Each structure stands twice: as structure tokens, then as C-alpha cells.
Target: Heat shock protein 83
Amino acid sequence: MSSVTNAARTLFLRSFKLQRAGITYRHFNGLAKTISKRPAVAAQIRLVSTETATKNEEDYHSIIKDTEKPVGESSKHEFQAETRMLLDIVARSLYSEKEVFVRELISNASDALEKFRYLTVSENETEKKIVDKDRPLEIHISTDKHNRTLTIQDTGIGMTKDDLISNLGVIAKSGSKAFLEQLKAKEGAADSSIIGQFGVGFYSAFMVADRVDVYSRAVGEEQGYKWTSDGTGTYEIQPAEGVQPGTKIVIHLKSDCREFADDETIKNIINKYSNFVGSPLYLNGKKANIVQPLWLADPKTVTVQQHNDFYRFISGSYDVPRYVLHYKTDVPLSIRALLYFPEGKPGLFEMSRETESGVALYTKKILIKNRTDNILPKWLRFVKGVVDSEDIPLNLSRELLQNSTLINKLRGVLAGRVVKFLQDQMKKNAEEYEKFYKDYGIFIKEGIITNHNQLEKEDSANLLLFESSHQEAGKKVNLTDYIARNNENRTIFYLAAPSRTLAESSPYYESLKSKKQEVLFCYEPYDELVLMQLQQFKGYKLVSVEKDMRDDKAANDLSNLGEDSLKRSEVNELSSWLKDKLSGKVATVNATTRLENHPCVVTVEEMAAARHFIRTQSHGLPEDRRYAILQPQFEINPRHPIIKKLYKLMSSDQQLAELLAKQVNVSQMIIDIFGTHIHAHSGAIIRFYLPYSSIL
Model:
């Protein structure tokens, strides 16, 4: 073939990949004849094709070659009885997706390389002599659509004939497991990092294979072997020549599994499951695992740019992380975690509890599950990242992920560490944390409401932020700040209102204000519900000011009302009359001395629960049913002009008095119980009582 023909063929094959489209030599020869008549074009093609060929040859690297040749007699063996019974279980039950067999075989290859690495640092002189320390430790994969095969080869420790029988003939007695036991016997377990259960992973290949051929040559051995089986009841072993050190697995795919002989399919599987194996991984001669397992690096050595790139890689986002938690521990579990807190605000999709977790679970750099819902509590579903634990078995099923004691322990450790991390961020930079809390505080509140462990709830509760009556508007404090200033009555008071203006003008607040008692203001709808669920914090009771007023028996002492007030007998008379006229709308009517500027107030047993009921469950209920559930208590201020005028109208104008009583009660119900829904300005409460001014 002429140089022009070669140039045309190289150009089209390497630059445009037309071979897949069925381009033949006839096409190239015809093209070559046309190009040869135009020297300038031919020269340009030679230049381009030479550069392309040189570059591709430099990038291409593969150890997979058809050099193996079986020689001598083969020996036939039967699988162990348990293996025959378990083969079907492994294929059907352990793995829900067929593609994971690629992950399993890559994991096994990584095992073999780890074993070889261990031998290179072994103190055993015999082992040292047989190890070629200059051997590159690599994993290679090739696909062949035409022959419908997938080949995976490693340069690891390899297997002898006995190893092939014990490792591949018995499903629960793996080479890795036996090897680890040998290391433990030498007290060298701490120096190894080997993924167990080699046999289980290997047999996952039979989910997609008609036949599996294994060529292996153990380190230090001259003789190689071929192991072959169709996955039914027997396998054969035969000596083989031309076997490279390590192990080569050739999978002859079933006709309905031909997609696993496709380059792009395998590339996607590698990216999904095995991007972070510890050795170079090549697919059809090209480096496949180009992203490094950043979570295993020393946190001090990782740059901001590396974190940004890795965050975008695992999350599919285009922003940068707001916070980065790079965490490792060996007690009580081996954990390597890299967690990212997004910079952007959560959308409606992220707010839904149906949203999947953004954290992937690995064991020794091998993916178990990409989005693992149970690895962090549900409220942390906005967190993105990776958790790698050597204590997690590779074949952990979906059911075990949901119910495993090990997973529960892992979730508890991680959740506690995340809470501590956020507490640290609050201390380091309160302004930045406030921005985070504004965007993601709803998730923290969800975590407290849904958690049944009081200690964990209190840890999370310290992440909550509130405005305080003792701080200027806009300044936020947490519960720890509050108790540091109020350590006498061991009570944390809080008040729900849509704004500071409404909170400070609330009838509930005015009595505590006169006592100079600090009160936390809850502006968000679920704040008071969270504190009601929490009940206490570090030994301090959490009490709403509404409940404090309702339970304050001293406020009902009318012995010192003063001259500007109704007399006790008049108060009793008016209270009885009001209870009669407001029948069905109030449970009781009492006088209180806690009010100064307000004529009355309505209290219920649990105001937070009442407001939540009004918001979510009261629609469609008859009015009398609502009042029966709420059991409101109507408390009047005997010193207020409206209440004193009401008493006079009882005798002079019964009809007007009854109208006024009902109107005052309805207005106060709106202010006190429905008030958290009324986003009004400072004159809102005053305007409720303007219609009564003409009566006074």
C-alpha cells in the first residue's frame, strides 16, 4: 500500500473513526487514487496523519495481548456443592444491576495489586527475592464487539493452580480472605488494605457470560495456567504458555449482554463505580481513571481549585462549595469523608423529602451506591460528597443499607461530625454562617423535629438562630448565647411573630418586657414548632410566653387592682357575663394583671400547636369545632378603658355591649392566634381597635 494510501487510512481511522461506520479498504484505496493526483493535498494529509498517529501512539498503552496458549492435559473439577447452590443466589440477589460485575472484577484486580504491593515491602527475604519491584501496577480492560468479549487484566500477584482451585472453586473461601488471615497471623494486618470476598465478586461475571476464561501466573512462578468454566457445575484447569505475570480474565458475553463489549458502555461504568481505584486503569489503551480520590488525600495538601473541580465532578453542579468538610477517623469506624455544602440556595426540588441523597458510599475506593439515602440523616440531603469506609462490605445489599446496624452507626458518627462542623463555622465566621442559615436553616429545623434522640436534637438546636429582645434588630443569637446571659430561672422564653415590630407590640411580650426578661423572637412559621418539640436545651426549659401567661396564677390575683381599675366584684360580674355571651367561643374568662396597653388577650394550652393546626388542619372544619379543639382562654385587663366601658354598657346598652364583646374577642383571636400570618406594619394592632374609639 502506498504512503498516500496509508495516510488516508490513518487520517480517517484515527481522526474520524469511520471504521465503526463500516469503512473498508476499498473506500480507502479509491480515496487514495483521487488524492495521489493532487500532491499538495497528499502532502497535507501525510502531515496531519503523521501527527495524529504519533500523538495516538504516545497516548496508547495496553498490556493485553493474545500470547496465551494452553499446553498439556487439562484437569476437570467440580464446583463445591455450596458454590453450585450459591451461584444463582449471587447472580440474582446480591446485585440488582448486571453492570456491577465490571466493578467487582476491577475490585479483584485492585486486590491483586494490593497483595503485590504488600510483598514489595515484606520483611520476608524469600518473598523479596521473587518480587519484581519495577513491575508497573496497572489494570487494563479491552472490548471486542466482533467477538463479543470483555477482557480485564492486572499485573498483580497472580495465582498458582492451587490458588485457582481454592479461590475460584469455593465461593466463600476467597484468596483475599485467606491472604488477610495470613497477614493477621504475622501481625501485619495493619499494613494491608485488601478488599475481601474475591470469590463472590468473581462469580458476578456469570450474570453476563456464557463462558469465562482466566489466565494467571503467580509472582515468582514460571508456569501459567488457564481456568475456564461456563458457570454451571464444573471448571477446567490447564497449563498455558505465554501467560504474563498477574491475571487476565476473558468474558465471553451472552448474546443479550453484548452492550458490555462496547467501549462507551464500559467507560461509563468505570466512571460510575471505579474512577478512584488506587492504580492506573486503562480502557482500550487509554487512561480511564483520571479523577483522583481526593477524600484520601491529606486535607492540608488539597487546594481550593481541586475542591471546586471535585465538587463539580461529583455533584454535576456549576457553582462552588460554600463549606468543605474533609474528615477522617478510625474510631469507632474507619471513615474517610469529603462533604460539600452548596453555595447556591436550595430549589423546590431539593426541599422535597423525596429528593435523593447527594452522598456516594465507597469501600476502599470502590463504589457501593452512588446516592446512598441512609448514609446521612434525611435533613442533610442537600450535602454532596463521598464517604469511604473500609468497614463496609462491598456486597452490601439495598436491604442491608436500610437496616444495617453498621450503617446506622456510620450515619450517627457522620451526622454528629457535620453538626460539630457547622457549630465551628458559626464561631469562626458568624456573618457567613448566617447566610448559610438563611438558605438552609429549614433543613436544620426539619432534623430537630424528625429526630427522636434528645441529645442529638439539642446538639442540632445550637445551630438555630433567633433575634433577641436584648439585642438590636438584625443581630442573631443561638440558644447557648441566651443561657449564658440568663442562668437564674433556667428557662428560655420565646415568642412567635412575623416581625420584630409585631413581637414587641404583642400583649404577651409586654409583661416580660417590664420585668426586663430576655425573649427570643421566632419569625419563621416553624420556629416555635421546633422549640415546642425540643422542650429543653442543656437543662433549660423552653417556654413560649403565651404558655407562661396562661400558667401564671399570680397574674389572676386581683387583691391590688388600684383605683383606675374595675373592682373585684365588677370583674367577676363581667367575666361571668362574657362567658355567657361568648359561649362556644371561649373555654374560660379570667382577669389578668399582666397586661398594660392591651384590653385583652387570648391564650391556648399550646399556642405553637394551635397555630400549626390552624395552618394545616382546620380548613373545612365548622367554627364551633375549631373552638372546641382550641379551648381558648379569654383574659381581660380590668384597667383598660375598653373593658371598663364594656362593663358600663352591660347595664346601659346590652345590645351594644354584646356586639362590642364579640368584636373584641374576634379581633384578639385574629391578633393572637392568627397573628403569625398577618404581615402588617406597626399600626396593625392599633387599627383593630379604632372602631371602638367612638364608643369610649
